[in-house]
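Q: My collaborator sent me two sequences in one message, no labels, and asked for predicted structures for both. Can we handle them in order? The first one she listed is below.
A: Yes, handling them in the order given. First sequence, followed by its structure tokens:
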Amino acid sequence: MVATEKERAVLRMVQRDLPDSLTPYADLAAESGMTEDEVLDLLRSMKEAGSIRRFGATLRHQRAGFAHNALVAWKATLHEADRAGPLAAEHHSVSHCYYRPSPSPDWPFTLYTMIHGRSGEECRTVVLDLAARTGLREYAVLESRRELKKISMAYF
């Protein structure tokens, strides 16, 4: 767990965008009053302890030209999701893949993939590719019309 105010300061900073420089960790260290090695050790130890799962860059897909996306809800049993989920997750156009059963009998979908593409047609092609790879045939494509909010969680 985070013990010092300096460590909390570093964690507040890494929840934002990293400094756009050749030495982002040194910049964070200078701003927090820690050394670069202390910053890196803090992040490494938190990952090893399981306090954070990963630490990495987030691509702003719209700025990179991937202006279309779709959430695809797949009808899958737990067994089918265990087999199909990893196949879908390894696809380069899928950013998120979740198994989330619904308590409602009116919504039979349990496996969800978030697909990003440069066009609606590209997203539809990925859906067909995933259906072929996974063997899942029943799905609903929920295309995004506009993004209302997208931020990282802030814990400190």
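Q: And the one she listed second?
A: Here it is, processed independently of the first:
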Amino acid sequence: MITLAGLAATLLYLIASLILGRQLARREAPNTRLILALGLVALPLHLVSVHAAIYQPEGLNLGLFHVISLVGWLIATLAIGMSLYQPVVTLTLGAFPLAALGILLSLFGNAPYEPLSDLSHGAESHILLSILAYSVLTIAAAQAILLAIQDRHLRQHKRGILNTLPPLVTMERLLFDLIAVGVALLTLAILTGFLTLQNFFAQHLAHKTAFTLTSWIVFAVLLAGRHWMGWRGATAIRFTLWGFALLLLGFYGSKIVLELILHKPV
């Protein structure tokens, strides 16, 4: 039953992505209602799958592939939510395949991991905030890529994707709104992490923390530059993508090395 729910969600995500991709390739207006309807049906099926994978009798299984699936669900949810009040359904073209990949990895991938039991409320809050922050900033990175494409097309006087997106000013404002929310969540995640860490090096957190803090600094500088010096355009895009790249290394780097390369359950 759980596997069927996951596979059904995967199929719905991929169908929606194929429809949207085909319409964009033909320079047609996206069928937003159909795309979002498919996504809204996929979300609860995906949630059933990822919930069963993470919440196990032995404790929370936050292995690499299950975390990818959970992040995929959150990203798909955010992309759909944003598309309901702004014409940015194009974001789902990246979010839905990522969510589908997460489900398949969670169902069929194998990485050693010891489920977490008896977590403190602080540790649970840290984990939740970290995953939420990463998900929001992933969507921000996707938004930055769309903004870069839109800016290039405007400079080259091309239409293409411009027909499916709101004005450049609106896209920039949405990008900075996402970054502000992501940084707020990341700040809380860092604070709760420091409060709940018991053995910094034994928990293999040194590199993760260093990358995360560096990413936080990059995003904080971007927000400060936006407020005090009016940074926008290419500067905002570069800072966003660099900050996300650092966060990506911190969020997944240690898990990939320990679980997939060294085969150590952590």
